[in-house]
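Please predict the structure of the following assembly.
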Amino acid sequence: MRLRAWPLVLAPLVLALGAAGPAQAQEHDVAAHQPAPPPKLILRGFTNVDYAVHEESQPNSFALGQFDLFITSALSENWSFLSEVNFEFDDENQLAVDVERAQLRYAPSDRFSIAAGRMHTPLGYWNQTFHHGAWFQTTAQRPQMYLFEDDGGILPVHEVGLQAAGTIPSQALAFKYSVSLVNGRGRIPDDVTNIQDRNGSKAVNLYAAFDPAALTGFEVGGDAWLDKIPADPEIVGRESEIRERILGGYVAYVRPNVELLAELSHVHHRVELTDAVFDTWAFYAQASRAFGRLRPYYRFDKVDVAVGDPFLPPTDLSRHTVGVRFDPMPWVGLKGEYHLTREEDRDVSSGRFQAAFTF
Amino acid sequence: MRSPLAAAIALGLATVARVATAGDVAIIVSRDHPQETLTMAELSRIFRMEQQHWRAGGRIDVVLQMSGSEKDAIIMKRVLGLQPADIQAFWLGKLFRGEIPAAPRSLASDGSVKQYIAGNSHAIGYVDSLLLDDSVTALKIEGKAPGEPGYPLARR
């Protein structure tokens, strides 16, 4: 896998370096006459304050959300830096600090850019559009299939390595793509391999999407993730590596007043030693409609982890979410939602109120 | 030699014609810019920063105005496809997703936009077509110049 993956990343790089000639020459000419100004730092913050009602059988509670500092800087015409530093509290009220994103990007053309660092894995729509910062998303909570790794999520929503991406426009549609060559998963889903991969093989993620010119706001796309999960000798059943293949697809139609999203993901695991196979499915569909500053919404979530999967947390859950968002001003979103969750053959009602804002 | 009356009538007709066809939103670039025309789809991609490089190379430098004028409303609605209240959140979302390194610059008046674009060969912006002069080039949109029938950014 590792040997076959390199040409996927390097081919667009070679093409783009050739195509970037005139732009680089112009940039050089300008630089020869003017001293480059120092980079300008843009800092934004996102956070939220919640009140959770009967969630996971816990007492009703106020809850601080992620305190997200978003930093970006254009270093030159074609180089830029982006990062997100997140302060959050765990279930034991202990503070944790995570560098959620830190990426250096070189973008010589629209058709090609390459980034290095820790990034959002280009999986589907939600993971690239919202991620941290609850203010962006309509709902108070993320879809179950896109829970963060440290919240019991099943997908590798962060990646560390290289990512090539671009958009190729035409009269009829825009074609978006990305190719990632990154550290693979760790021994458990929460083990994001920031500084040390657990085995020599690298993971590959391929993503493509189409955005037709005739239907503004509509997008359809898909992705494929291939990895080899390392063995974990301390756990029975994990004596050998696991081949992982994740396939995903989505359709999205987003206009200022309408939001329709649906995503499906299939996680296939094959244990190398035994050839045992485990197939996990995850899905959500969300709809919202704005009436002025009021936006009612509904979402259905489904996550069905294969029984006996040696890597993923056991989950068989379906959830209905009904809520409303009210934006009293442009940078503040107030949300209230009700969840009806069916898990382990029992129904549980819960709710969440949220004030999400950016500053 | 024309009589003073004929000259006055001719001048009056010319003025009426100018007023009737002027005041459209002109898309301008610097005089040495190689491109002369854009489609509405291209214009929209450029102003939404979905296309960030010129065909001839160089990063596009989009210049907006936020004066709240009818001209801004035309750009918002017909080019960006946004309501004025949504524009800041739109740029913030693009920044957050890493699609742009910075939001486009916004200048206060047609005069400052013209002055900036005249000196920046990769810049593009918009001004009232009444204020066009030879310091900048007005691009044709869908093959139509400001003031021509069917110009997509005409004031209606």
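The radius of gyration of chain A is 21 Å. The CA atoms of residues 244 and 269 of chain A lie 5 Å apart.
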